[in-house]
Amino acid sequence: MTEIRTDWTRDEIAALFALPFTDLLFQAASVHRENHAAGEVQLCTLLSIKTGGCPEDCGYCSQSVHADSGVKATKLMDVRAVLQSAAQAKDNGSQRFCMGAAWRNPKDRDMPAIVEIVKGVRAMGLETCMTLGMLTPKQADMLGEAGLDYYNHNIDSSPEYYERVISTRTMDERLETLDHVRGAGINVCSGGIVGMGETREDRVGFIHTLATLERHPESVPVNALVPVKGTVLGDMLADTPMAKIDDIEFVRTVAAARITMPLSMVRLSAGRESMSEATQALCFTAGANSIFTGDKLLTAANAGDDADAAMLQRLGLKAMVAQEPMRACKAMEAAE
Ligand code: SAM
Ligand code: DTB
Ligand code: SF4
Fold this sequence. Notes:
The chain is of the alpha/beta class. The protein has one domain: TIM Barrel (Alpha-Beta Barrel). It contains 13 helices and ten strands. The protein has helices at residues 10-17, 21-35, 79-91, 111-123, 137-146, 159-165, 171-183, 200-211, 232-239, 247-260, 277-285, 305-315, 327-335; strands spanning 40-50, 96-101, 127-131, 150-152, 187-189, 192-194, 219-224, 265-268, 290-293, 318-319. Strands 1, 2, 3, 4, 5, 6, 7, 8, 9 and 10 form a ten-stranded parallel sheet that branches. Helix 4 packs parallel to helix 5. The protein is globular and about 50 Å long. S-adenosylmethionine is lined by residues 60-61, 100, 102-103, 131, 133, 153-154, 156, 192-193, 223, 225-226, 228, 270, 298.
C-alpha cells in the first residue's frame, strides 16, 4: 500500500509536474494500480436541484446573477421529481447521485426538503452527494444524520488565484465548510477547475492545498473549465484562445492528484464534452477513476451515456460496481 502523506511541499508537487511526461504517467499509473482496480471507472450522475440566480460572483459560473449567460433561475425542485431522476440514474448504471444547488448557502427553511431528498435517494441504494454552498455546523450535522455520503465543496484553485476568480467569499470560508462537513462525519468531495487562465504554479498550489488537508478528500473532482459565454472567464477565454488549457498539462494535473492523494477517487469532471477520447484515455491512465455520465452536468452539456458507453468499451474499462457507501472513508481509516 502506498504511504499516505499530508506533508507534501509545494516544491515536491512542482517537481512532479516537471517530470518527463511518460515518467509522470508511469508513476501515477503505478500508484493507481496499487490502490484501486485500475480497469474500473465510477459512474456518477449530476442533477441541478436548484438552478441559477446565485448571488456569488464565481467568474466561471453560468449560474451567478453576475453572469449574463441566459440561465434562468428556478426554485428548489420538488422532492418527488428529484427521486424520479435518481431512479433513472440508477437504471442507467450510476453508482453515485450528485445534487447541486446554486446557493451561497442553504437557508434553514430549505433543510427539511433537502433531508427528505437525501433519505429518499439513499434508500434506492445510490451513494448520495450534495453541493449546496457554505454550511453551518448545524446544517452539516443535519445532512450527516440524514445519511448523506459525500458533500462537494471545491477549493477551485490555488489560494492566490482563488481571489482573482471569486470576490464574494474567501478560500478560508471554503475550508471552514469542509471542516464542518468532516465534523459531521460526511465524506469530503473537493477539487477544482483547471484552465481558468491560472499558471502552473497555481495548479501546484491547488493540488498542494488538497493534499495537505488533515485528511485527503475522499473524492477529488478535476474540472476543465467549460467556457460559458457571458461569464467573466468564458468571455476571457473566447478573446484569448491561447489561454485554453493544454491537454498534456491537464493530464499532468490529474496525475499529480493521483500521486499525492493515492486513496481518493479522482473524478474527470466538467469539460469532457470537448476533450478527445485520447486525452480522456491519458487521464484514466494517469489515475482518474470516476466520471459524470449523462447528457447534462448542471447547466452545461456532457458527453452523454451512449458516447461514454462506447468510449469505455473501446478502452476496455468497466463501470465500477456499486459499493457500500462510505467505503472510501473506511479505506482511509484502515490505512491510518
Ligand atoms: N453553489 C455550490 C458551490 O459553489 O459550491 C454548488 C454548485 S457549483 C456549480 C459546483 C462546482 O462546479 C464549482 O465549485 C466549480 O468547481 C464547478 N463549475 C462551475 N462552473 C463550471 C464551469 N463553467 N466549468 C467547470 N467547472 C465549473
Ligand atoms: C464538480 O466539481 N463539478 C460538477 C460538480 N462538482 C457539482 C459541476 C460541474 C459544473 C459544470 C458547469 C455547469 O454544468 O454549469
Ligand atoms: Fe453560485 Fe456555486 Fe456558481 Fe459560485 S459556483 S456562482 S457559488 S452556483
